[in-house]
Design a protein that fits this description.
The chain is mainly alpha-helical. It has nine helices and no strands.
Length: about 220
Amino acid sequence: MVIDDDPAVSERQARGAGLRPERPAATGSDSRRASAELDRLIGPAAAGDQRAVNDIIRIVYPLMRRYCYARVGSGGGPQVSAEDIAQEICIATVAGIPRYRDQGKSFLAFVYGIAANKVADAFRRAQQQHSFPMAELPETASAAAGPEELALTFETRRTAAELMKILAPAHREVLVMRIVLGWTAAQTAEAIGTSPGVVRVMQHRALRKLRAHITDTA
């Protein structure tokens, strides 16, 4: 079976495997526009245009925040905070702008490389550190989600994260980019250094493996 580039098709296939993907922040043409806009901005940014740098972060941050939540969830403890990792990615992206060189890959693929490294670093830190400092008691009531809603959200993310662990790392990356970020097969292929056809095959095999696992454990 060939995986379609239409994000709606990818989402239906993910649901068939028992996953419940969130709505992508930038899907299909939106993702392509974001990539094109980044490629337009990188030249001025590298030349010192601060407005271009700010615009790059404005585009990159929501994509990387969503990517990090898909990789680490929201319950990994203070050493694996999706928000913190996304900010680290943005800082590293700004630091990397002067050394970026167009070598046939988009700037978004360059940012994705930074993101993959930052997530891996965060997991290594989490394995080495096990302290969980308590926050101070708030002075006013919080309007945030209550314990039950947070527990349900955490359980959903934990289940998805556990499912993803049965996949090879490359297959996990493909699912995150294709289903969570809503990237096309071509964009995903560019980011991981392969062809769109291989990306479709990897996605199909990953979803088939998840589906089989869910069926066997049901």
